[in-house]
Design a protein that fits this description.
By secondary structure, the chain is α/β, with parallel strands linked by helices. Helices cover about 40% and strands about 10% of the residues. The protein has a single domain (about 5-400), classed as Alpha-Beta Barrel (TIM Barrel), CATH 3.20.20. It has twelve helices and nine strands. Bound molecules: iron/sulfur cluster (2 copies).
Length: about 400
C-alpha cells in the first residue's frame, strides 16, 4: 500500500466542498436488459417486461453536460451493460476523452463462463486490452456468495467462478484490478447458512459474521484485490411513498431484511472488515456502518443525509430521465442535460434507503462539508460522537493508503 497523489484532492473538488457541495456523481443505467437469473433482482431474464437501452447519443449528451457541471464520477450500470460491449466501451472512451475522473462499470460475469473453451484466454485478453486503453477506473464483478455453486446457481451462470479465477491475472496483466461486488443476501455464506428469519440476535449476528469472513477469504483466494458490499436494497419504512425505478430492488426474502436484522448484519460486517483490510482493499467505510446501525437503533439524526438529487443522480434506462436515485421514481428531474445542478437548492435530507453508492460517499464527504462549513457546531448526532469521528478518520487514512480505490493500481 502506498500514498499517491489523487484526483480526489483536485482544487475544483475542494472548492465544491467549501461551497457545501460534493463533486457530482451520475449513475447511468445504460440498459435494464439482463441475462442473469438472480432471485434478488427484478431485472432477471425471466421477468417479462419490455427491455430498454439508452442510445449512445443520449448518453454522450449526458456526459457532455456532466463535464460542464464538474461531475467527477460516472457509472455505467444495468441490467448487464456488457451485453452491448462495443457500445459500452465507446461510451467509456467518450467519458475518458472528456476527463471524467471516476469512470466505473461492472458485470455479472457472463463472459467468464465456458472458460475451458478454446479461445477463452484470447477473448479475455482482448476485453482487458480494450478496457485498459480507456480511463475506466473501477470494474466490478458481482459475487453473491462465498460458495461458488451457490453464486452460480443464483446468477444462472455455470462455471463462472472458475472463469473469473482465470480472468483476474489477465486483467491484472493489463493494469486493471477488478473489484468483487457483493450484494448482501441470505446466501452470502452459502446456501442455508443464514436463518430465513432472525429469531435470536446473537445467532443471526454470528451467521453473518461467519458469512462475511468466508466471503472475504473466498474473493481473496480467487485473486481479487478489491471488494465492495452493497447493502440490502429494501427500503427502510413501508410508510415512505417511494417508487423504485431501479429494478435491482426486489421483495424476495433473500435480500429483504427487517431493521433489527440489518443492525446485526451491519455490526457483523463492521466487526469483520478490520481483519481483512490489510489483505484486500475494502470500499465499505466503517463510519457508514456505524451510522446506519445508530439510525436503525432509532437515532434518525445520527447519520449524514444522502446527497441523492442534490449532487448524485440516477438516469433510468426506461425513459432516460434523471431521478434523485434509483428509489425515488416519483421525482423525475427531467433530462440531465437540461438540469442545472448548481441551481438545486434543496438541502440534503433523505435517509430512506441504504444504497451504498450514494450513502457511503454522502457520509464520508458530508462530514468534510459540515466540518468546513460549520466548524464550531455539531450538525448531526454522529458528528458529536467521538467513536464516529474516530472511525471517519480511520476510514480516510485507509482510503488514502488504498489510493482511494484506484482500480488501475495493484494493492
Ligand atoms: S443482479 Fe445484475 S445480473 Fe442479476 S438479474 Fe439483476 S441486473 Fe441481472
Ligand atoms: S437515501 Fe439516497 S439513495 Fe436512498 S432513497 Fe434517499 S436519496 Fe435515494
Amino acid at each position: 500500500m502506498k500514498h499517491t497523489k489523487n484526483p480526489v484532492f483536485q482544487i475544483d473538488n475542494l472548492r465544491s466542498v467549501l461551497n457545501g457541495r460534493i463533486p457530482g456523481q451520475v449513475v447511468i443505467q445504460y440498459t435494464n436488459n439482463c441475462n442473469g437469473t438472480c432471485p434478488q433482482c427484478s431485472m432477471r431474464k425471466t421477468e417479462t417486461y419490455p427491455r430498454s437501452r439508452l442510445s449512445e447519443d443520449e448518453i454522450c449528451k449526458v456526459i457532455d453536460s456532466a463535464v460542464r457541471q464538474n461531475v467527477q464520477a460516472i457509472s455505467f450500470t444495468g441490467g448487464e451493460p456488457f451485453l452491448y460491449q462495443d457500445s459500452l466501451i465507446r461510451l467509456i472512451q467518450y467519458a475518458s476523452d472528456r476527463n471524467i475522473q471516476f469512470i466505473r462499470t461492472g458485470t455479472n460475469g457472463y463472459m467468464f463462463t465456458n472458460s475451458d473453451s478454446i479461445g477463452y484466454t484470447d477473448k479475455i485478453h482482448r476485453l482487458a486490452e480494450r478496457l485498459s486503453k480507456t480511463k475506466l477506473r473501477n470494474f466490478w464483478i458481482s459475487i453473491d456468495s462465498a460458495d461458488a455453486q451457490t453464486h452460480e446457481q443464483m446468477r444462472g451462470l455455470k462455471g463462472v467462478i472458475q472463469g473469473i479465477e482465470k480472468a483476474l491475472p489477465i486483467f491484472h496483466g493489463h493494469g486493471i484490478y477488478p473489484a468483487a461486488n457483493l450484494g448482501i443476501n441470505r446466501n452470502t455464506g452459502g446456501l442455508d447458512k443464514i436463518s430465513t428469519k432472525m429469531t435470536d440476535k446473537e445467532v443471526f449476528y454470528q451467521e453473518f459474521k461467519e458469512a462475511f469472513e468466508h466471503f472475504y477469504q473466498f474473493v481473496i483466494s480467487l485473486g481479487f484485490s478489491m471488494v465492495n458490499a452493497c447493502y440490502p436494497m429494501n427500503v427502510n419504512g413501508d410508510d415512505r411513498k417511494m417508487k423504485a425505478v431501479y429494478g435491482a430492488t426486489s421483495i424476495n426474502p433473500v435480500v429483504n431484511f427487517s431493521k433489527e436484522e440489518k443492525i446485526q448484519i451491519f455490526q457483523a460486517l463492521m466487526d469483520t472488515i478490520p481483519k481483512y483490510r490489510s489483505q484486500i482493499r475494502i470500499f465499505t467505510p466503517l463510519v457508514s456502518l456505524y451510522s446506519l446501525i445508530r439510525q436503525f437503533e432509532g437515532d434518525e439524526d445520527f447519520s449524514i443525509p444522502c446527497r441523492g438529487g442534490i449532487d448524485f443522480f440516477f438516469i433510468d434506462a426506461k425513459d432516460g430521465n434523471t431521478y434523485p436515485c434509483g428509489y425515488r421514481g416519483n421525482e423525475s428531474m427531467g433530462k440531465f442535460y437540461d438540469l442545472d445542478i448548481k441551481a438545486v437548492k434543496e438541502k440534503p435530507f433523505c435517509k430512506a434507503c441504504d444504497w451504498e453508492c450514494f450513502r457511503d460517499p454522502s457520509e464520508m464527504i458530508g462530514y468534510l462539508i459540515y466540518s468546513f462549513k460549520h466548524p464550531f457546531s455539531y450538525i448531526t448526532n454522529g458528528i458529536k460522537d467521538s467513536t464516529y469521528r474516530n472511525l471517519w478518520k480511520k476510514d480516510l487514512k485507509y482510503y488514502r493508503s488504498c489510493s482511494f480505490f484506484d482500480g488501475r493500481k495493484p494493492f
